[in-house]
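Figure 3 (text version): structure tokens given as input.
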């Protein structure tokens, strides 16, 4: 299973992974939701087959959880925490079956510590169920390859069983119901099988046809919703989101590369890129060839996309999943050192370089969600810079309950004076969904643009708001004065700005909410 005994520190890795799982469960219930988490929770109040932004899996999972545990942050995050932990488990199993125990432990540790995965480890976002589907498909896809090339799979059968192909199709479909990016792991598996002469016949087998059929059937909710609504989600992701980039933009492309180094840390990003290159050079070995095809298509696609259109730094994360194994294996091998002292020296250099980035960032993130330490760290690093609290993402988790109480006081006062209770509105989905979660009321989005709320706020719904009093809220992240939008809507004709609500975390300024009384 491994060439040399595990060290005491290596034996503690499973304990650390379990501890992180428990930590996520605890923190997940202690702090408020992020903007996107609140948005996906708000989807659950009007369950649909799919949604404009993403397919519906994350909403369905949150709905099941809050139905059991109540409308609270813990219940919202629980499915995602479980999905992310299972993704780490399948990453571990894949690395174990491809190489050895030490490589598997290193890969699982990286998946837990690398910022882009650690930050999402307890976030209720579509990437969580997608990551689980991706990791499962990577694991079972490898087992299919080994069975087809060596004649052993799930026992002594002479072929890959139909039940295995059924699982592949089902998980591909469920992954697609989580996030469209899942199609890339399917494409990666097809490319891997196609370019291996021993495995190419799998693509002509009845089992592969069954997998495709099951996957398409599982994807039907997305197709049905899009067909009913004029294919808006596909148009958004495949066309509208890719437009407006103004052609090749090398400044934006440079920003993409910087963001990759930031979200993965410079050491891990460079190590993963080096590992992908090594995987290509060692493609005569089936393990390395598999890791290359699991990573290269996704990373190449989103790297090229960033040159021509807007990008999100985390879009490449699934492609780096396999590279964590490749990097872990290179580390375990000592990066090609011939003598043991060379291997040990190289492992120490890379290990300490990695730890210098990963451990402080991991600690900082988990402390920052509880205490406003990021401004102090930013001031220590850049003392001459003027700190803007909107650059602290942990501020998004706080202030909403306090704001809700303040708004209820205003509305209670209006009712006491004989005015109907005002409804709440804002201009961005982030603010709308956070207010909705804090108040457990329906909150309206009043601004141009398309999102989930565009499909709920029909002309009939908006018409019913006419002549009703409204409280409109914006903040220092997304400032918008509704008085400039009066011509866009017929639901109000005048607004007066009230005293802003300023929120601080433990005495540290976090956010200013601007409040407007409209009618």
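Below: residues designed for each position.
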């Amino acid at each position: 299973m491994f060439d040399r005994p595990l060290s005491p520190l290596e034996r503690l890795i499973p304990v650390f992974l379990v501890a992180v799982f428990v930590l996520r469960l605890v923190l997940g219930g202690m702090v408020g939701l992020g903007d996107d988490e609140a948005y996906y929770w708000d989807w659950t109040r009007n369950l649909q087959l799919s949604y404009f932004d993403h397919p519906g899996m994350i909403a369905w999972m949150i709905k099941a959880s809050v139905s059991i545990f109540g409308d609270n942050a813990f219940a919202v995050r629980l499915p995602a925490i479980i999905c992310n932990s299972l993704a780490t488990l399948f990453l571990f199993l894949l690395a174990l079956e491809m190489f050895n125990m030490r490589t598997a432990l290193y890969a699982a540790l990286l998946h837990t510590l690398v910022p882009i995965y650690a930050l999402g480890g307890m976030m209720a976002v579509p990437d969580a169920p997608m990551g689980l589907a991706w990791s499962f498909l990577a694991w079972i896809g490898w087992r299919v390859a080994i069975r087809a090339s060596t004649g052993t799979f799930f026992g002594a059968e002479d072929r890959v069983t139909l039940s295995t192909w059924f699982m592949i199709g089902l998980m591909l479909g469920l992954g697609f119901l989580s996030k469209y990016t899942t199609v890339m792991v399917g494409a990666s598996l097809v490319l891997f099988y196609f370019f291996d002469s021993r495995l190419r016949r799998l693509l002509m087998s009845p089992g592969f046809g069954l997998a495709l059929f099951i996957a398409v059937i599982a994807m039907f909710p997305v197709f049905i919703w899009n067909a009913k609504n004029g294919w808006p989600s596909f148009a958004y992701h495949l066309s509208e989101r890719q437009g407006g980039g103004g052609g090749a933009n090398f400044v934006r492309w440079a920003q993409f590369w910087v963001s990759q180094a930031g979200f993965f840390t410079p050491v891990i990003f460079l190590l993963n890129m080096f590992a992908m290159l090594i995987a290509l050079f060692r493609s005569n070995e089936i393990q390395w060839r598999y890791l290359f095809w699991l990573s290269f298509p996704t990373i190449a696609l989103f790297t090229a996309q960033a040159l021509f259109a807007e990008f999100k730094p985390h879009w490449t994360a699934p492609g780096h999943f396999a590279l964590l194994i490749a990097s872990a294996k290179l580390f375990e091998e000592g990066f090609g050192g011939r003598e043991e002292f060379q291997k040990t020296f190289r492992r120490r250099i890379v290990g300490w370089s990695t730890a210098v980035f990963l451990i402080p960032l991991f600690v900082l993130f988990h402390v920052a969600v509880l205490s406003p330490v990021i401004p102090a760290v930013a001031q220590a690093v850049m003392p001459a810079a003027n700190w803007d609290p909107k650059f602290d993402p942990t501020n998004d988790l706080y202030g909403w309950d306090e704001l809700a109480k303040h708004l209820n006081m205003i509305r209670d006062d209006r009712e006491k004076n004989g005015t109907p209770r005002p409804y709440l509105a804002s201009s961005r989905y982030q603010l709308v969904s956070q207010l909705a979660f804090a108040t457990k009321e329906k909150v309206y989005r009043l601004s141009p643009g398309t999102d989930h709320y565009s499909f709920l706020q029909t002309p009939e719904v908006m018409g019913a708001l006419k002549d009703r009093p409204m409280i409109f809220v914006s903040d220092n992240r997304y400032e918008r004065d509704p008085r400039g939008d009066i011509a866009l809507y017929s639901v109000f004709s005048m607004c007066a700005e009230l005293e802003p609500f300023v929120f601080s975390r433990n005495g540290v300024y976090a956010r200013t909410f601007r409040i407007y009384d409209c009618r």
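Residues 84 and 244 are 34 Å apart (CA to CA).
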